[in-house]
Amino acid sequence: MSTSLTDSILTLALALPADATITVPRSWLVDVLGEHPGSVAPNDPHGATPLGAPANLITIAEAATRIGMKPSYLYRHTLPFIVPIGARTKRVDVQKLEKWLAKRSALR
After folding, report:
1. What sign does the CA torsion over 85, 29, 10, 3 have?
2. Distance between CA atoms of 83 and 66, rounded to whole angstroms?
3. How far apart are CA 44 and CA 22, in angstroms?
4. Scanning 7, 19, 26, 76, which has the fewest C-beta atoms within 10 Å of its C-beta?
5. Sheet of 82-84: strands edge to edge?
6. What is the pLDDT of residues 15-34, one digit of tens each?
7. CA nearest neighbour of 52 among 64, 63, 40
8. What totals of helices (H) and strands (E) does the chain contain, helices first?
9. In sequence order, what are the beta bridge partners of 57?
10. How far apart are CA 14 and CA 60, in angstroms?
């Protein structure tokens, strides 16, 4: 990232209130930072898994498809395999999901 861009972003950040949060479109970040190999999690063509997130996390939609439930059910319920990533973002820990499924099938 160029120094002038870094300075501009820092100036913008310092102008915000201390407790402020902002949302920026992914496309803007890619344009600003440049598309680099490994900038999103591998095998994630839509960039839904943040870089640095553990590889054993999948999206709610992927988990719902895997277990035959609607994504809305997974969002609404507190389940042991749901991992909050941000204020509104959740992922599913695959290992915990598999354990949960094994326990459920053992009870049947």
Report:
1. positive
2. 17
3. 24
4. 19
5. 57-59, 90-93, 82-84
6. 888 888 888 777 777 676 66
7. 40
8. 5, 3
9. 93
10. 35
Tokens standing for residue 56 = 């054993």
For 47, the 3-state DSSP assignment is coil
**Rounded CA separation 26/40 (Å):** 11
pLDDT digits (tens, 9 = 90+) for 78-104: 899 998 887 778 899 999 999 999 988
Residue with token string 């598309």:
35
The answer to whether 59 and 83 are in contact (CB under 8 A) is: no
Q: Max Cα separation, the chain?
A: 62
The tens digit of pLDDT for each residue in 24-66 reads 777 777 676 665 544 444 444 455 555 555 568 899 999 999 9
pTM of the model: 0.49
Q: Whats the size of the chain, residue-wise?
A: 108
